[in-house]
Amino acid sequence: MNIPETLNVSRQGETEILITRMFEAPRHLVFDAHTKPELLKRWLGVRGGWTLAICEIDLKVGGAYRYVWRNESKNLDMGAGGVYREVTPPELLVCTERFDYPWYSGEALNTTVLDEQAGRTSLTLTVRYESHDARETVLKSGMECGLAESYNALAELLAIADYDERVMSLDVPPAAGT
Question: Which of the residues 10, 88, 147, 172 has an alpha carbon 20 to 30 A from that of 138?
Answer without folding.
Answer: 88
